[in-house]
Amino acid sequence: MDDDTQTAVAAAREQFPSPDALPEGVDRGRVVLGFDGYLDRVREVVADRIDPERYERVSTLAAFGERVDDSVAAASSLTFEWLQEGSRTGGHTCHLGRAFGTWAFSPVLVGMYGNPVHEAFEAEFGEYDLTSMGAPGITDAVEFDDGKLMLTEIGDTMDLDWAGLDERLGHDALLDHISGAALLGMGYWSETPNLPDILDGLCERWDDIADPPEHVLVDPGDVRKLDADRLRAGREAIGRLDEHTNVVVSSNRAETGVLATAFEGEAERTFEADAEIVADALDPTWFVGHGVDRSVVVSPRGTDTVSVPAVADPELTTSSGDHFNAGLGLGLVTGLDPAAAVVLGNSVAGYFVRTADQPSLAEVRQFVDDYDEKF
């Protein structure tokens, strides 16, 4: 809990309305989210089976890796038993839609939910404005104490581009969805390689949006899936859209490093230096990098770092980055300064990894109020 973090937390406490004041202080309008959709199966790996009912789990990603390395060294095949601990809808649209729905906004979800819409999406989001453009992805999310392993079958986002959006939604439908929205969120570049084409399509039609959103939040996702040439070729689309609105790009620490390497080359750099390189290359209004120990935001105000109160025994880490983005998005629509908005991102993610549950606005505010006590 350093001085910069104390300053950021104090700003969040001052700028973020109390839950009692929020209905009057915030326009809880529509939030448009695109363009993915996932069915997530949360799993854990068995280390040792004691009896049919009892077992010990592989608790760390490092231990999982050691078993794989040992098998490779022995030139032997390897079998893991894994168990499904739960299932839920996932992806950028679902996690952020769930959060903003909890906060009494009106989510508009445009993504891949099946044709017809899969019952899991219908059950959770049927009361919202839900538009499906194709088949969802399937993810097996293996939870460890020090990270997670995501095994994903990508749905129909892989070939999605601007022309595809027009074809699947109908002429001008996306612009109609966006008009009047408080926030437009898009994820992920890694699962939608043609996302820069979609951003350019929005640029060309931005002036046709009757009431365009003030903020656009872009999550590149696990960009290790994309080669450096594709990343370099698509980077200018962010800056072009930022000429029309405020674009905020949010990546985790590893993804920030991958982007910095693609744009600047390999080197030993700090998290802050990587974030500054990516901000310079993509040219958004803000670039935000979030990690387990601290988050970084590069904005016209400079570079701010906010420490994260870590938890030794997280309840669930899968989608913690999406929950950070939900808190960050909440900071955007409530008009917070960059570092204060990052505190909200850390708080929503922090609550989620401790409880595996979505916080209410009152619980977000309580986390901010107790932020320094969690170190």
- State the total count of DSSP E strands: 14
The main sheet orders its strands as 6-5-1-9-10-11-12-13-14
**Radius of gyration in whole Å, from Cα?**
20 Å
- Number of discrete domains: 1
Q: Which term fits the overall shape? A: globular
Portion in helices: 40-55%
Distance between the termini: 7 Å
Regarding quaternary structure, what we see is: single chain
Report the sheet-strand fraction: 15-25%
Structural class: alpha/beta
Integer average pLDDT: 94
3D architecture notes:
The protein is an alpha/beta fold and 375 residues long. The chain has one domain: Ribokinase (UDP-N-acetylmuramoyl-L-alanine:D-glutamate ligase, 3-Layer(aba) Sandwich). 41% of the residues lie in helices and 24% in strands. The strands form two sheets. A nine-stranded mixed β-sheet has the order 6-5-1-9-10-11-12-13-14, sandwiched between helices. Strands 2, 3, 4, 7 and 8 form a five-stranded mixed β-sheet that branches. The protein is globular. It starts with a helix and ends in a 6-residue tail after the last helix. The mean pLDDT is 94.
